[in-house]
Structures are given as C-alpha cells and as structure tokens.
Amino acid sequence: MRVILIGNYLPDRQESMLRFAQMLEGGFQQAGLTVETWLPTVVLGRFATNTYVGVGKWLGYLDKWVLFPLVLRWRLRGRQADATYRYHICDHSNAPYLAHLPAAYTGITCHDVLAIRGGLGHADAFVPASRLGRLLQTWILNNLSRARHLAAVSHFTLGQLRELAPAATAAPTWRVIHNAFNAKFWPMQASDAWKFLQGTGLQPDTPFLLHVGSDLPRKNRALLLDMVAALGSRWTGVICLAGDAPEPALLAKAKALGLSQRLVSIARPVHEVLVALYSTCAAFIFPSYSEGFGWPVIEAQACGAPVIASSIAPMPEVSGGAALHASPDDAQAFAEAFLQLSTSPLGAELTQQGFANCQRYAPALMTAAYLDLLDLPAVHSPLQPA
Hints:
The protein is of the alpha/beta class. Helix content is about 40%, strand content about 15%.
C-alpha cells in the first residue's frame, strides 16, 4: 500500500498545517507504509513576496487552483481505480482537490470551519470575509461536503460541519480524530528553562502569565490585560505574549491601564524557548473566542502549566477537565480562577490531571485512527515499536 498526502502551498507559510502533514507522514512511515507528500507546485508564486494580499494572492490562487489540479490529474493518469493507493488531503482548506482524486480512496482532515462560517456571515467565528472570500469558502464547503472519508479534530468541529452540511450527515466515515502533539513538550527544569529565557525580558524572581498565539481578534489577548487589572495589588507579576508582536491597539490598552511595563513580548519563540515558557509560567491563559482544536492547551499541560481557558467549545473538550474555564468576556472570572489556582492545592492537582489528559494525544493513537479511516493495513502497529 502507498499513501499520498496532499499538503499545503509553501508560500502561504501555514506552519501548523505543514507540521500536521509531517506528523501523518512520519506516523504512516513508522507503520511500515510507503508515503509521499505532494505539495501544490510553486510556479507563479515564485514572483510574489506575499501570497496573502494583492497580486501575490492571485498568483498563489493560479498555482493552487488552476495549475496544481492539472498536476494532480497528470500524476494520477491510469491510477484512479488502483486500490493499492490511498490519498489524504491534510487541510480542509484544500477540499477542492477532492474533485481531482479518487473519491473511494481519499480522505481529508477538517481542522475547523472558522473561515467557512465567517464566509457565511457567522460573527461568532471572528473571521470576517471579503466578497471573494465568501465565494471561496462556499466553494470549499461544497467540496468538503462530498468527502467520503473525513476526520474532524474535535467533536465540536464535526458538529459545526454537520450543521453546515446537513445533506452529508449520513456519511459513515466522518469521525473525530483528535490532533496529536506535533512536537515534543515536557516539563523543563527551571534551571534549564531560565537559560533559554535569558534576554527575553522575563526574570526568575517575577511570576508571569503566558499567552501563546497570534494577534487575531479571536485570540482575545486583551483579556489578559483586563485580568491583571482586575487582580490589582493581589498579584504583581507580568504578562508574556509569545507569538505575534502586540498590535497597536493592545499597546494602547496596556498604557491606558498602566500595564505597559508589565507586558513582555517574545516574537515567534523557537521551540525550546516555548517549552521553557510553558514550564515556568504561573499559569497559561487561553481566552480564545473561536478555535477548531486549541493545540496550546495540551502543550501547556504537557509542560506542567496550570491552564485557565475559555469556556467556549472545544476548549473544555480538549482540556479533558484538567483546566479551569471561564467566559472569554469575563476578565474578573479569569482573575478569580487564577487566585484559586495560586492559593490552593488545585493548581498542583490540575497539573497532574493535565499530564494524564495528554495521554489522549499520543501520535501513535492518531496514526492508528487514520489507518482505520483510510482502511490501511499497517505493516507495524503504530502503538508498538516497529
């Protein structure tokens, strides 16, 4: 058996989707299968510095939606009925490729329906769309609805997809396969962690709250400022934002609240720095309004950080009950949850529960589930050493 994975267009720099494809490729290889990853061919995109805006976006569209389907059909000539091949599209945003692959032997992973719901006018997705974006997302949904073999990364995402595509709810091989860890996360010793954190603006004698993520509005980073303001003199630590640099509106809010000197930004930390941050923070705060899965929740748990996250699905599903949850609109509730963690044994209890929850996201479990989805016989069991 051979597996062909369809990955993402490299100039789009969708790192999480590229890592996901690498996870599947590595898991299938460990199971003893022959695996290839096909990426949309970069032809016109070579002449663009950015494929998200302006002319660069249109060049990327031509590569992805005109040239690559032709490449797929050329590569598959005479092979459409070959039952020794399986195909899997690693990102639901590439659902239109389903039309060019053998339906009976092709699966797809749906990571979220945020952009689709945003394109359909659902404000709670926090993903506004242009007129072109609305057309694109409708096209993606129409193709995704025809998938015979589909994995959603959470029960919440699968439920939202079924609501958007009710005609497809009878599909027997639509199921939930939770994401696995896409890298190694562990509780780093403090002495090692602070070696990686030198020069970041953080100090070993000053506790910090951690947020990991982008500056997208749905990530709700401003809540951490309101949370610390609500704590007042009861807590004098700092806020660390790891990911995108603070946007001007966030900096203005910090200044208005008198918290500018208590805001530390670490732009796009390398992996060891990220593990060090998770391992040494006073708590990991994840007040997101909208997610398909929420990888940072389990990453923090794997590093021993107590987690306070949004009460909006799928965060409680992903945390497995090993976190405190509050409304992303209620900074006071987040503040009280943090005080509860820091003044009682609950923090240590949640840390231990978090370690147990992380066992659900072992890469071997995810690989086994995808083997079953695609009806692939493993040469070696992914649950046992090869």
